[in-house]
Structure formats: structure tokens, C-alpha cells
């Protein structure tokens, strides 16, 4: 197992040229890969995409065509496709996200989880899951500054930014 101790600039070599051009041109600040797995495409992978609301997590996740995207926010999408956030259900939403990730990984899919992951402990379930299943694992930190699509109030975004923890080294190991 290799350990990556440095945060490096994101180099999305897995994106098609036109996707890459479109993605890069839309960002002031490119995302950062906190740990990177450069193994073959045959290796199953779990990718975590972290950042405060409005940093570009969902937009970036949707460019990862080889992965199924899972977000806690999906729990709040009703049968008509409308986003209906309810704060008192946030724990259930994150539990659903973890279970859905595990289900998809067990079915053989690559999975990209795009959540804020403000605190390191919020990523530990996923890291343990990747280790237990002997999967490649990476954490990508989004640093863009855009209008958030879920209408999170500016005061909450600022609070989250002030509480955002640097990635622990223990979360940056990869398999390949």
C-alpha cells in the first residue's frame, strides 16, 4: 500500500479531452487530489469528493463517467425530482448514503461520494469500507467558489468553511 502525504493539483487524466477542457475552463481554482490512485482502470475504486457547498463537488462528480455518483443530498429528492431538504433527516440521509455506497461497491461499481466531509471522521467509514474490500481509494478536495445549488445560506457556508479540517494522512493511503 502506498501512502501519499502531499496534496497535489488534480490531473483528471481519466476524462475525455472535451470533458476536461469544459471542466477546467469552468473553474477558477482546480480541485486538489489529497490522495491519488493511478492504478489500471480494471481496479475498483471508491472516490470521495469533499468541499464546502458551492465548491463544485456535484459538477465534478458528474464528469466521472466510470463511477456511480452518490450524495446524501439525493436522499432529499422526491419522486417528482424536486429537492426537498429537511434538516432533521440529515443523519438518515448520511446513513442512506453509506448503505447505498456499500451496495453499489458490492455490485462491482466504482463509486464517487460527493459530500461536504467537513470533518475527517465523516470520511472514516468510507476509508474502512475501501480497506475492507481492498479497493483503490482517493479523496478529491474541491476548492471552487460558486453559487451552491441547494440554497445553503451564506452564514452556514462560512461556518462550514471555518470548520473545514485538513485531510488526515491516515485517510490518504491508496491501494492499487
TrEMBL record:
Domain of life: Bacteria
InterPro entries the UniProt entry points to: NEDD4-bd_p2, P-loop_NTPase
Coiled coil (UniProt feature): none
Pfam families named in the record: AAA_33
Annotated signal sequence range: none
Alphabetized PANTHER family for the sequence: NEDD4-BINDING PROTEIN 2-LIKE 1 (PTHR13308)
Protein name as it appears in the record: AAA family ATPase
Species classification: Bacteria, Pseudomonadati, Pseudomonadota, Gammaproteobacteria, Vibrionales
Amino acid at each position: 500500500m502506498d501512502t501519499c502525504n502531499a496534496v497535489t493539483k488534480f490531473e483528471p487524466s481519466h476524462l475525455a479531452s472535451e470533458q476536461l477542457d469544459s471542466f477546467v475552463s469552468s473553474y477558477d481554482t482546480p480541485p486538489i487530489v489529497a490522495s491519488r490512485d493511478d492504478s489500471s482502470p480494471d481496479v475498483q475504486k471508491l472516490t470521495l469528493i469533499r468541499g464546502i457547498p458551492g465548491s463544485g463537488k456535484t459538477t465534478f462528480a458528474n464528469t466521472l463517467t466510470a463511477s456511480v455518483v452518490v450524495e446524501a443530498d439525493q436522499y432529499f429528492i422526491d419522486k417528482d425530482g424536486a429537492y426537498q431538504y429537511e434538516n432533521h433527516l440529515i443523519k438518515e440521509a448520511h446513513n442512506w448514503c453509506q448503505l447505498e455506497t456499500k451496495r453499489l461497491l458490492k455490485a462491482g461499481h466504482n463509486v464517487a461520494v460527493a459530500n461536504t466531509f467537513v470533518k475527517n471522521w465523516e470520511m472514516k467509514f468510507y476509508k474502512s469500507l475501501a480497506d475492507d474490500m481492498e479497493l483503490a481509494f482517493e479523496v478529491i478536495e474541491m476548492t471552487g467558489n460558486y453559487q451552491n445549488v441547494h440554497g445553503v445560506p451564506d452564514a452556514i457556508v462560512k461556518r462550514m468553511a471555518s470548520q473545514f479540517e485538513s485531510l488526515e494522512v491516515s485517510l490518504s493511503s491508496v491501494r492499487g
